[in-house]
Amino acid sequence: MSANVDMNQRPDPDQVLVDIADYVDSYDITSDEAYDTARNCLIDTLGCGLLALRFPECTKHLGPIVPDTVVANGARVPGTSHVLDPVKAAWDIGAMVRWLDFNDTWLAAEWGHPSDNLGGILAVADWLSRDNISKGKAPLTMRDVLTAMIKAHEVQGVIALENSFNRVGLDHVVLVKVASTAVVTKLLGGSREQIIDALSQAWVDGQSLRTYRHAPNAGSRKSWAAGDATSRAVRLAMMTMKGEMGIPGVLTAPQWGFYDVLFSHTNKDMALKPEGEREFKFTQGYGSYVMENILFKISFPAEFHSQTACECAVKLHPEVRNRLDDIEKIVITTHESAIRIISKVGPLANPADRDHCLQYMVAVGLLFGELTADHYEDAVASDPRIDALRDKMEVRENEAFTRDYFDPEKRGIGNALQIFFKDGSSTDGIEVHFPIGHRERREEGIP
Fold it and tell me: Pairing state of beta strands 393-397 and 327-334?
């Protein structure tokens, strides 16, 4: 037999798939803190979606693919009159909750917004419940929704702890697709084996590039990418429930699997990782850790690495608002991830570009003493004082902030800000280590 002939022996499912499926299928959530947090997370996420309905750039994407289509017993899109199939409803809900960059956040080796999964969870739960009622059966309960939320948060967040998809150029919405696929398959009545099959489809799918989040291509796709991912999860789950087969070696298959094709290089120089370093790494199993430690984005509709920098800017606003022309320089001290993801100079093309620019957000906070979604629109961005302040900014890394960011016991998101004036004077340096909404400041945010 030729040495280059592939052996056609179907493998056992990859262990990563098995571990997720075992957790989603049978793990019993017993944490009261997780359920309490999930309830607040649900309310917070719906609020983000309803606020997004004020913005035509969001609402123009909502509704059926074919205008005026209404699905009998379909899934409802909150705040609208749309009643859709669960795949498009998941897209709409997911896009709404992500549009303003205001829903919850998870920061680790990878980051993301686990409540993005609510697009698929709410759409499927509503459709299933309405269909059940029409047939005289019991609907799902909100407890079912909260359980699905906790498990989706956990799957997305635990994978993100040690595995950086951004460093190989992939967008974090791959984890939304994976987590949504697992819990939606369970909601649809899928077995452990069907969850494994559906998960394999999520991993083998085409994965989004991050380029729409970064200069010079930052744009509005980042506001609907998670809706697209959770919607795709619903589609894959429903296909699996109709009997579509899985791809058991989707991650580990030599040459053709996810690890070798998409996780094998370093983004910096495209050098190949050694084979033993291409697999996902895990330091803990699945439980309810992520929901218990989730970061609520409460103060500012802004990329999360900037939250404490914006808080510093708002605190300094009273000192600088009448001395803008006297400013010599503005020093922002931050962590490495913020520098890599949201520090940028030069023209900003659109609102999506602006809410991922650390310097823009700090400038707005200094100028106006607040930062709202409206501050990213052209009417405010045309204020020449914003770019004048941006031009005076220096961004530096604080290695202690970076260490705290990766410390699983702290999960810090530290930023510091100090203003220096032309006469040699300066403000005090303002440091904030944890934003409102962090577990360390959770009580400040709950009201």
Answer: parallel
The predicted-structure confidence for 311-350, as pLDDT tens digits, reads as follows 999 999 999 999 999 999 999 999 999 999 899 999 999 9
Tokens of 143: 């407890």
The answer to whether 18 and 282 are in contact (CB under 8 A) is: no
Q: How far are the Cα atoms of 9, 121, 150, 180, 349 from residue 115, in angstroms, in the given order?
A: 39, 10, 9, 10, 28
- Please provide the DSSP assignment of 273-319 as one string: PPGGGSS---SS--SSHHHHHPBP--S-SS-GGGHHHHHHHHHHHHH
Q: What predicted TM-score, i.e. pTM, was given to this entire model? A: 0.85
> Which among 259, 281, 280, 134 is positioned nearest to 207, based on CA atoms?
259
The pair of three-digit structure tokens given for residue 52, joined into one six-digit string: 């997004």
How many residues can be counted in the chain?
A: 447
Cis peptide before 351 (omega within 30 of 0): no
The rounded distance, in Å, linking the Cα atoms of 219 and 91 is 18
Q: What gap in Å lies between CA 397 and CA 223, rounded to an integer? A: 28
CA geometry: angle 152, 156, 298, nearest 5 deg: 85
Which amino acid, 90? A
| Cα–Cα distance measured from residue 366 to residue 326, given in angstroms and rounded to the nearest whole number | 14
Question: Do strands 83-84 and 415-421 pair parallel, antiparallel, or not at all (unpaired)?
Answer: unpaired
**Element (H or E) spanning 339, and its range?**
helix 336-342
From the number of C-beta atoms within 10 Å of its C-beta (0-12, 13-18, 19+), residue 445 rates as middle
Q: How far apart are CA 310 and CA 360, in angstroms?
A: 10
Tell me if 29 sits within 8 A of 150, measured CB to CB: yes
Q: What is the pLDDT of residues 267-312, one digit of tens each?
A: 666 667 776 678 999 999 999 999 999 989 888 988 889 999 999 9
Helix intervals (H) in 27-117: 32-52, 56-59, 86-98
User: Residue 51: CB partners within 8 Å, gap ≥ 6?
Assistant: 100, 102, 373
